[in-house]
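During the reporting period the student researcher (J.K.) took over the structure-prediction task from the postdoctoral fellow and processed the backlog of single-chain submissions. One of the processed entries is reproduced below for the supervisory committee.
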Amino acid sequence: MLSCLSKLQRWKRLLLACIVVYVGIIIIYEYHYEEVRELLSSTASKKTPTQTLIPKLRKQNGSSTRIAIGLGITSRRIKQAKEDNLHQKFIFFKVFLPSFCNTISRGYAYHFYLGYDSTDKILAKDRLRRAFITTFINMTSTPACNRDNSTSIHFNFVRCEHKRKPPWAQNDAMIEAYLDGMEYFYRVNDDTIMVSANWTETLINALHQYQPPNLGVVGPVQRGKTILTYDFVHRTHVEIFGFYYPRLFTDWWADSWITAVYKPRHMKALSSVRLHHTMQMGQRYGINRSKRYHVAGQIDMDRITLNKYIQRSTLPKVHQNISKVISMSLTSGDAKITWEAVRNAQIARVFFSDWSLRVYMQSQDCSRNKPAIPERILASLQDLDVEIIRVNKCDIDIQYLPLLALDDASIDVFLIGQFRLNESDCDAISSWLSSGQVCVNLSELKSTDTSGFMVKSTPTRPSNESSVESLLTNMDTTLNQSGNHSDMTDLLSKIVQHPCGHADTVHVVT
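J.K. obtained the following structure tokens:
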């Protein structure tokens, strides 16, 4: 009897030991899978490191390639944060940043863009936000961060006027990066351990393999995932869509969208880039599950935009003997207005490649009551081949400045007004150009409300007027003194001699 009990106890102990070992294996697999796999692969092979096999890509001017690291960040579930303990409280400092330092490549410029809610209990406070930046600088300036004089790391906070919408914060962060001239964009999460070295060269090289180069998305393979939960793109992505993620998505499905919209030829998950999403802080936002019903429609719509972009960007350049200009004005430094101007320039560069885009703006002395136009906006417009014309005459209303293009006798076709271009306008405008019409009401061509006109050849002006500029100056002075302002139709009736339908005349919709 005692012998049977002894054997039973031994079996129980053996079973318990097996359970402990089994649970241990599961824990290691779940939380250290990538690290274990990397260790096993490194001991199994002594091949040349990947870093020596993939060439580093550089800008033509020799300066470092600039990479935006974009993410949303929150202090939700963080308690008792102080200026001197943020490195212990934020998962960004405990997990992400050390692994980033261990895996970056030398010779690149990394720019962090962290989007935070304006209502965040910690980051909304100037004192703690400054402490956050100081902590970041201290951690990335130590020898533990794999950098030398050829590597630079920069930090930017992006204030977001919304609450608990991660894709919106990520989008806002990436748009700021775009306007700052970043070349590549890596959207990550703050609770991530980056495992693979050389991810910078690997991801950039993968984008270069697409046709056209840089048009698409790549990212690391995530175990158990069929979509890219981390994405890496070129600035071309923002120029195609006008956003990083659609505003439709407030929590989930943004990663589903960017995966599906580029599938199958312009999306790739790379097994050679490994990371671990720890989820140590849990899920820190709610989910609006009703959005799932709109995902397919958004993908279909944006695939049309993508396909049109690919078709237009791969067409051979055709030299034309006529000169065409799109003339607009930049009325304020307001963020919404300036982004509209940048978006028009993005669309014009591809879909109106045989047109020149001309943007008129007044000197700051004339617009002291309006936000100044940031230099980076002007730089972004110039990068997109926009001709910026500064007007120093304060007595011309800024909304009428696009009419000044009519003084340019070298232009054959004018598209003048304040409107939002879109890729569907191209075909309609091309059809009009091949027609016998001299002028057109833009509302007849565009599906959206607009204000502006198109005309072929320079309109005839009254003989007593030397230029449109002098007419606008004198007219606007009279109107201002009388307390009334004319619309563009009234102004054009003074510039041209005949109604629309006659040669060299225009028709306007406002």
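The committee noted the following: The chain is about 35% helix and 15% strand.
J.K. will present the remaining backlog at the next meeting.
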